[in-house]
Amino acid sequence: MSKVLLASRNAGKLREFSALLPDIHFVLWPAEAPELPETGAFFLDNALQKAEGARTWWLEHGTEPVDGVLADDSGLCVDALWGGPGVLSARFAPDLVSYRDKNHRLLAMLPEGAARGARFVCVLAFAPMEGVAFTVSGAVEGSLAYDHRGERGFGYDPIFIPEGHDQTFGELPADTKHTLSHRARACAALRERLGVVRE
Ligand code: IMP
After folding, report:
1. pTM for this structure?
2. How many whole angstroms separate alpha carbon 157 and alpha carbon 171?
3. Domain locations in the chain?
């Protein structure tokens, strides 16, 4: 089993990575570590920035050896909002605390009759402790629900209906989300890439 530092404090992401990559032991980004900047215009820039930033910090302050650092930059891209909130998903509606309220705000921003197409996108950056970082990505197409539905998952899950389903990610069992989500697809690509790297 390899040991990997997860450059995130998002509990929803941690839960999903533990289920999607059960052969990896994740070390959590410590509470005393700095907030990792994500100032890029693209998911890929931010994922790399977080993975490399976390690796640099860990090399100086890390409390245990790890094989590498994994960072995820992801978000919801809504067609009627020109792809937003996209890379700004984590910073959308900062005046609101709960995702129930953020989700209602996002749905209210759609003009009446607007197309409801949307997709979740995930870019993973893996930075080995020695060597060059790389990225993989995954996406899932779908549409926006008309209301916040279900309490499963996290973030925007209760307003996103994946293609081929009638229920939102907030209503579907975690196992179903893990067969088709943006993060599941990116993790499948990561597993393949790590396998190749090890050969
Ligand atoms: P970041 O990658 O830390 O910039 O944050 C991504 C944000 O996108 C999260 O805080 C969520 O709001 C949203 N997001 C990413 N993946 C998911 C998901 O699988 N379900 C619901 N929301 C997600």
Report:
1. 0.96
2. 8
3. 2-194
Catalytic residue among 23, 45, 73, 101: 73
Q: How far is the CA of 16 from the centre of ligand 1 (A)?
A: 12
Which letter does DSSP use for residue 39 in this model? -
pLDDT of 195 reads 85
Asked whether the beta carbons of 123 and 47 are under 8 A apart, the reply is yes
User: Cα 34 to chain center, whole Å?
Assistant: 19
Q: How far is the CA of 199 from the centre of ligand 1 (A)?
A: 32
CATH code for the part of the protein at 2-194: 3.90.950.10
Contact yes or no for 137/189 (Cβ under 8 A): yes
Tell me the pLDDT tens digit for each residue of 105-127: 999 999 999 999 999 999 999 99
